[in-house]
Specification:
By secondary structure, this protein is of the alpha+beta class. It has 24 helices and 20 strands.
Length: about 725
């Protein structure tokens, strides 16, 4: 029997090859691990431990505002706040999850949530369903370059149904909170809620901070106005944390190291003095790991709240003046022919420094819903609205006449109506006969000013003949008026000041109107600057609302040291002789202090002296209801300018009552207001002087008492020694 040949198996050989390959692979792996560990170990360790330093700015409360007597006007009211600080790399889904938890602890206003927000939120929460809103054909168009990715997103938004975007109340709150989360910047606290945060909400959030990544409790602030609406429009507004930087000034503020959600002054004093009120932000350096977690924080510079402003305003005088205006508006509105009367203005200023003591304005406003009218603050109207001021400007006309050689001090004109061919007769309210410049101011002669303007224009008046003038006289008079501040910006430290309107016609009749303040328009602030220039002897002073800038201090009850004292600024000096200005001052005194003066009845019997000029201008109503009339409506503007005491002025004033009445005669509201504000000014001055004397006397008594006690103690000690 043949022996069977043994079958040779290949399994062991294959296993050996497999084991060999495994050995080679393990050897390569060990070798690679060795290279990583030994050669590149330090590099990889540094990469793992790599951190990033990010510096953020934390905002601080704004500076306060005080009146000239150091009465607090604007402060910062502390508010409990809930904030969210997003770390770098935080996913949207993580923020939504945190927002859902926070929504269970607080109530969040949802009024700012838009339909677009709802659809974006739906896409975020339903990514698969959102993907189905786009067809394969539309995706191919993106690949082919026919559509952009943004176009697909727009299609998704468009195809989300109203039912799909509908959210429950709690989901709406979650979305509202998420909106706040998403609007913040990495490592910068974002306000989630700072209005009407209840103690219960504050406590609940505080207890659950461990489960709310990025959420924290803090203290925010809001502007508080001690005197409610008084001067609030002039003091200005501050943007909210939701508004942040105004879009129109975004680049300006970003270039100055502001954050987009910083709160800044939006208008008037808050805006004008933003750099002063904003303060020094706290700078914090945050060190983050690769996951965006903060591993260390270091304060680089401590924050400091904004500097404080001491305003020139006298709040006692301001409040009293506003009451006077309101009382007069209510009383005069009850009279006949006052359907257009709806506003009045008073500005009072130190003519020697330009410090604005009061800036009061009131007007009737009708509620569009109820139809009811109420008197509201309109202090801004003193710089943002202009009117024909009438004879109040005649002091500038006389001085312009002197300067141009059209008249001399003491020049006489016969006051009777002028009859220029082709026009209506123009004259004063009465024929005054032969009068000089002083009497012309005293009785407010129009004809005297007409004759002065005719001479300035190089014309010759002949009754019933045409009047041929040099039209350059308009520029001559306007340029001269601008030296006083009429028809040009006053330079006050407030934005949005208007300069008024200049008439475009150059007919002879319009030139005569210009000379008596019935052509161009001026603001109440321009009017007080004009009369101040006459009062102080020829210096046009720049009006200003801020008197001092003070350093902030930690003690809320204390005022810091003076950082800057705002010095008076002379904008220009009248190019006129001092004797001419004194001549006009004498004419202004006759208006109030001599029988027959147009304001003598109101000031002639006072214990103080006033120099003033009254004004009445024929005008057309151009107020808020002008569209109700197909034809221009005739009306009268009445004004009063002046200063006191007459020989040594310390206060100048301008009273403007536009559209006061219809017809040629009416009430004397401007003079009555002028009388009352001057009575109030000197009454307050007397009361303060009496109080100061009493306090000084008390201090002296205390000091004397201490000296007596000291002397008695020394006597007793001497007796004991003996």
């Amino acid at each position: 029997m043949n022996k069977k040949k043994k079958k040779k198996t290949h399994v062991p050989f294959r296993l050996n090859i497999l084991f060999f390959l495994v050995f080679v692979l393990f050897s390569a792996l060990i070798l690679r691990l060795g290279v990583v560990q030994i050669v590149y170990g330090d590099d990889y360790r540094r990469e793992i431990e790599k951190t990033e330093e990010v510096t953020v700015n934390n905002s601080v409360p704004r500076g306060k505002m005080y009146d000239r007597n150091l009465k607090l006007m604007v402060d910062n009211q502390p508010l409990d706040a809930i904030t969210y600080t997003r770390k770098q790399g935080t996913k949207q889904t993580e923020m939504v999850e945190t927002a859902e938890k926070l929504a269970k602890l607080i109530e969040k206003d949802t009024n700012k949530v838009t339909e677009r927000d709802k659809k974006d939120f739906w896409i975020l929460n339903h990514p698969k369903l959102a993907a189905k809103k786009i067809t394969d054909k539309e995706r191919k168009k993106v690949e082919q370059g026919e559509l952009e990715e943004s176009d697909l997103y727009k299609l998704q938004l468009k195809r989300i149904t109203e039912e799909e975007a509908k959210l429950s109340k709690k989901d709406m709150e979650t979305l509202a909170i998420y909106r706040e989360f998403a609007s913040g910047y990495a490592l910068t606290p974002q306000i989630v809620k700072n209005k009407k945060v209840t103690k219960e909400e504050f406590a609940r959030v505080s207890e659950n901070l461990d489960s709310l990544p990025g959420v924290d409790i803090s203290t925010d602030w809001d502007r508080f106005y001690t005197y409610n609406k008084t001067l609030k429009s002039v003091l200005g507004k501050v943007s909210s944390s939701e508004e942040g930087l105004p879009s129109e000034s975004l680049d300006y503020y970003l270039a100055r190291d502001y954050s987009r959600n910083d709160r800044v002054g939006k208008s008037y004093i808050e805006q004008q003095y933003e750099d002063i009120l904003q303060g020094q932000k706290a700078k914090v350096r945050n060190v983050t790991d690769k996951s965006g977690n903060i591993v260390d924080s270091e304060v680089i510079t401590e924050g400091q709240r904004g500097k404080d402003l001491i305003l020139t305003i006298d709040m006692d005088l301001q409040l009293a003046t506003e009451k006077i205006i309101e009382k007069q508006l209510i009383a005069k509105k009850k009279l006949g022919n006052t359907k257009f009367l709806d506003r009045a203005f008073v500005v009072m200023m130190d003519p020697n420094t330009g410090e604005v003591l009061t800036m009061a304005g009131k007007k009737y406003e009708k509620d569009p819903k109820t139809g009811r009218s109420s008197i509201e603050d309109f202090a801004l109207g003193n710089i943002t609205t202009s009117y024909t001021m009438g004879s109040s400007v005649k002091g500038a006309t006389v001085l312009t006449g002197y300067q141009q050689g059209a008249i001399q001090p003491g020049t006489y004109f016969y006051d009777t109506k002028l009859k220029i061919k082709g026009t209506k007769a123009k004259g004063s309210y009465s024929n005054f006969g032969n009068i000089n410049d002083l009497t012309a101011l005293k009785v407010s002669s129009n004809v005297y000013m007409f004759r002065t303007a005719i001479n300035i224009a190089g014309a010759h008046y002949v009754p019933n003949e045409p009047l041929n003038i040099n039209s350059s006289a308009f520029s001559t008079i306007r340029n001269s008026f601008a030296q006083f501040g009429l028809g040009t910006r006053t330079g006050i430290d407030l934005p949005n000041e208007m300069s008024g309107f200049k008439g475009s016609e150059t007919s002879p009749g319009k030139l005569l109107d210009l000379a008596i303040g019935q052509y161009d328009t001026y603001t109440p602030m321009q009017l007080v600057q004009y009369v101040s220039t006459i009062a102080n002897g020829g210096n046009r002073m720049k009006p200003h609302m801020v008197k001092e800038i003070r350093e902030p201090v930690d003690d809320n009850e204390e005022l810091g040291p003076v950082d800057e004292d705002i010095s008076p600024t002379v904008m220009n000096r009248l190019d006129m002789k001092g004797d001419w200005i004194k001549r006009v001052q004498s004419g202004f005194e006759k208006v109030t202090m001599e029988q027959g003066g147009t304001a003598y009845t109101y000031f002639g019997h006072k214990p103080y002296t006033v120099a003033a000029k009254t004004g009445t201008a024929q005008a057309f109503y151009d107020g808020p209801n002008r569209t109700d009339y197909s034809e221009p409506q005739d009306t009268m503007n009445i004004t009063l300018v002046g200063y006191a005491p007459a020989k040594n002025p310390e206060v100048a004033f301008a009273v403007v009552v536009p559209w006061a009445y219809q017809g040629h005669t009416g009430h004397s509201m401007s003079k009555e207001i002028g009388e009352e504000i001057m009575d109030t000014y000197f009454k307050l001055k007397k009361e303060r002087a009496k109080k100061e004397n009493t306090e000084t006397s008390t201090d002296l008594k205390v000091e004397n008492g201490k000296d007596v006690q000291k002397d008695q103690a020394e006597v007793r000690k001497s007796q004991e020694n003996e």
